[in-house]
Amino acid sequence: MNQQTNIRSTADYQAMDAAHHWHPFSDMADLNRKGSRVISSAQGVWLTDTDGNRFIDGMSGLWCVNVGYGREEIVEAVARQLRDLPYYNTFFQCTHPAAAEFAEALANVAPPQMNRVFFTNSGSESNDTVFRLARVYWDCLGKPSKKIFIGRKNGYHGSTATATSMGGMAAMHGQSGLPFNGFAHIDQPYWYGEGRPEGLSPEEFGKLRAKQLEAKIDELGEENVCAFIAEPIQGAGGVIIPPESYWPEIQRICNEREILLITDEVICGFGRTGSWWGAETYGVTPDLMPIAKGMTSGYQPMGGVFISDKVAGPVMEKAGEFYHGYTYSGHPAACAAGLASLRILQEEKLVERVRDVLAPRMAKLWAGLADHPLVGETRTRGFLGAIELVKNKETGERFDGDLGVGGMARDLSVGKHGLVMRAVGDTMIASPPYVMTEEELDEMAARARATLDDLADKLTREGRL
Ligand code: PMP
């Protein structure tokens, strides 16, 4: 228990919070009526709240605490760095040891075509950087008309205005008059969620969805298209795992048409899919890769963009100064946290652990949940999982959206069974820390099943089934 900060009651914190704290992605009136859960400490994969309740963190915070909570190595590295040099900028012909060392360490684990990293403070800022750098690249090649970004419906690339425009979240677009001009979106490769079109296998469907990129480039004119950006596996959209046919077809199109390929590795990077990068898992060769989250395992806010030699070359040769950067680009404490986190991933062979131990076990456990009457489909890839809740298992009929069945499942999971899973509509998703033991993973699946059983009871009692 953290005695320094946790000195008031839960009700005190909730009242302070309700009066003064505006939360991200929250209906504040609703949240303030209910009161926030106050999480005060954590160890390994376990969270504790101010009432002493313990939860298995099936989401690694927000897809970021990959090496688990309570890692003294990271705490020590950050403290040491803050004593030596708490801050210095990397703008005016200066660097510092932590930035140089972290950049080198990152390049050593990056795909072979990537040798440079630009530091940011978040995934959103990484994608703003991608937007500006990709456009400068085409200017340097004498093709300044190549400006349009193609993203995907239901893709997520962050919350700044540019990242929101790149992404395809209809609700976000609706609220702010976005996307800006210069963004286009194709459909997502979401086999289960888009009605499992009759007569099409998932592989045929995946290929068709990828071919939409080709059609969109032709519609807009290749000479006007800058880049295609996509998450290897859509995270916030609902852990949407593309059919195996999807990415090879995207790569073919990007090879044949002259546009940049950008894989947003903010969630998939640093081992989440069982190899270092989602691009590696799907065998594609991106030109730019935004990263964040697992970069420091969430111990410090940080993001970055891996820049391929193909993009770096012309920009370094022709652009002169790239007028872009953040005060905290390469913040020393963030670099120290990143280096320590990377060292843990390497020394404890955690990416291999995801691939060889956790992913196969999760696949088996999630497949085991698929027999539940409320479950239409389960799917996993690496250490990511999804459970599709349906009203009718045979037909795949969904519940009425207004019922909020996903939210009910999440509340039961967290509130009654002590398991943090997230709901995206009626899809339950999970993305646990890589240090989870096999016993803890089994326990997580057991709690997920108990949640489903309780949900079925509740819906039956209410006459919804
Ligand atoms: N890209 C992807 C794929 C993400 O999942 C997220 C965050 N969930 C972002 C970008 C934005 O990152 P941040 O919240 O750090 O700005």
From TrEMBL:
Domain of life, source organism: Bacteria
GO MF term list: pyridoxal phosphate binding; transaminase activity
SUPFAM superfamilies associated with the record: PLP-dependent transferases
Co-factor requirement: pyridoxal 5'-phosphate
Keyword annotations: Aminotransferase, Pyridoxal phosphate, Transferase
Signal sequence interval, chain numbering: none
Pfam families: Aminotran_3 (PF00202)
Entry-linked NCBIfam families: PRK07480.1 (NF005682)
Family (UniProt): Belongs to the class-III pyridoxal-phosphate-dependent aminotransferase family.
Protein name: Putrescine aminotransferase
